[in-house]
Amino acid sequence: MTSASLAHAIAQFENPRGYLAVASIGLPPRATVEALSADLAAWVDGTHDPRAFDAVVERSRASYASIAGVAVERVAQGSQTSVLTSLVAAEVPDGAEVLMPEGDFSSIQFPFVVLPGVRVRAVPLADLATSITDETWLVVFSLVQSATGVIADTDAILEAADRHGAYTFCDVTQAVGVLPVDAARFDVTVCHTYKWLCAPRGVAFLTISERMDALLTPRHAGWYAGQEIWSSTYGPTMSLASTARRFDVSPAWTAWVGAEPALALFAGLDIGEVWQRASGLGDALCDGLGIPRQGQAIVTWPDETGRDLDRLAAAGIRAAGRAGRLRASFHLFNDQSDVDAVVAALRA
Q1: Exposed end of the chain (fewer CB within 10 Å): N or C?
Q2: Cα dihedral angle (336, 339, 340, 342), rounded to 10 degrees?
Q3: Which pTM does this prediction carry?
Q4: What is the rounded distance in angstroms from the CA atom of residue 224 to the CA atom of residue 211?
Q5: What is the mean pLDDT for each group of 10 consecutive residues in the chain (348 residues)?
Q6: Topology (CATH level 3) of domain 52-267
Q7: CATH superfamily membership of 4-28+271-347
Q8: What is the DSSP letter of 226?
């Protein structure tokens, strides 16, 4: 049975049939399209009020905090995960070890790799927890792997990190909106919302634990990091925000206008129900293809030549190819007909 709230949310997506690429880019709900259209009209008319966007950002921040399970005071906003990650990378002590999985998404790895004083060690995801030692300063990983959809063993990683005194950094971009996430369990999380939260690209969030907060410097601070935003537009004197908002950057206004209704939509859902639906469709596809169930919303299988991806495209089905595998991703707006269409296209 589908709850009334989930049924209402599904109805907000106009034409999702055959779309299995949300792990690449989500589809916008109707309210996002309407908000962006109205914002464009106001821009054309010259009736934009820059101060009005502040409330849009704050409502979006509150929705995200609710979805991610953290206090709103612990949430900073930005535009890209790599930029948010760089705030943490800059504070790694010289010579300290940063542990990460092999083949994880580069936006959370490169900011550490490029620093000459950081010792980066990469291991298979399955070995991440057992590879944490007393030498490990920070463990960096994605909750859901972009290339494969595999879910990290969070409990084991957190237990080992706590035992060895390591900080934890988790990219939840491929999880928030489809898989229940408790961001408060980690020292740092980053999330770009243009995938499973179905927002425009250019809206990202950083959550910070109290102990990590004390280590970070707001290196990207501008006027939007001030305690009083519109009194912080000229320097050099300023008073930074007392919350994680001091790590904010000036928002790309139009993107936030589109993000607000999308985030509000997901904040009103039981994400556990969303996961049950999406991962259930993923398993149904595995059954239809005769491959082992993966228990994931992202289903992948070897496709080195791209032949299967081409066959799906010819049938009007949108998926993706990553790391030599075909990646089909299911979200709340997909249904059994999408599974049947993939199976039919590959068996034709």
Answers
A1: N
A2: 160
A3: 0.96
A4: 23
A5: 96 96 98 98 96 98 98 98 97 97 98 96 98 98 98 98 98 98 98 98 98 96 96 95 97 98 98 98 98 98 97 98 97 98 95
A6: Aspartate Aminotransferase; domain 2 (3.40.640)
A7: Aspartate Aminotransferase, domain 1 (3.90.1150.10)
A8: B
